[in-house]
Amino acid sequence: MLIEHDGKRPVVAQSAYVAPTAVVCGDVTIGEDSRVLFGAVLTAEGGSLEVGARCIVMENALVRGRAGHPVRLGDNVLVGPHAHINGAVIENDVFVATGASIFPGARVGAGSEVRVNAVVHVNTSIEASTTVPIGWIAVGDPARLFPPGAHKELWPVQRELDFPGTVFGMTRDEMTMEKVTRRYSELFGRHRSDRILG
């Protein structure tokens, strides 16, 4: 389903395929021979989203462009089922496996792999040809890799990346769930005037 949002319409290459139950919303460009499979959502929430050539976005993946953090998928990128890419740049020839999460301000270098359930944190930069192992967390610029359960070692690095400021636009001290949900209610409420294009 193609949807106009904030006056912007998706642009889909003629050779690309968008499944009938996928959603492509707003300022989204999908390149030649790319495929967006069933249940996937590609949405531009104040930031553009560009998908290169021969990309595959598999079932139930979410790719979200956001204000200040547009998304760019290079050529030959495979986004696995249930993966989550939010406000990040993914360079050419990258594999983002099932359930992986990549957060705003992140950059994943060409030829890298973000394996099953791995996380690339906000404002993290992964060098080309890097593998983030299953369930591991990449943090920092340049990225350091931490295994699951290494919160004590991870937190000092993660804290400096400013998750609340990057994602919610507020300091950790001023962040409350009420402020977060009010901000998101306003942002996502803009969908009330969307137009379904087909």
What does this structure look like?
This protein is of the alpha/beta class and 198 residues long. The protein has a single domain, classed as UDP N-Acetylglucosamine Acyltransferase, domain 1 (3 Solenoid). The protein is 14% helix and 31% strand. It contains three helices and 24 strands. The chain has helices spanning 151-159, 163-168, 177-189, and strands at 2-4, 11-12, 17-18, 23-25, 28-30, 35-36, 41-45, 49-51, 56-57, 62-66, 71-73, 78-79, 84-86, 89-90, 95-96, 101-102, 107-108, 113-114, 119-120, 125-126, 131-132, 137-139, 144-146, 195-196. The protein is globular. The N and C termini lie close together (5 Å). The mean pLDDT is 95.
Task: Give a quick rundown of the structure.
With 198 residues, the chain is of the alpha/beta class. The chain has helices at 151-159, 163-168, 177-189, and strands spanning 2-4, 11-12, 17-18, 23-25, 28-30, 35-36, 41-45, 49-51, 56-57, 62-66, 71-73, 78-79, 84-86, 89-90, 95-96, 101-102, 107-108, 113-114, 119-120, 125-126, 131-132, 137-139, 144-146, 195-196. The protein has a single domain (2-196), classed as Hexapeptide repeat proteins (UDP N-Acetylglucosamine Acyltransferase, domain 1).
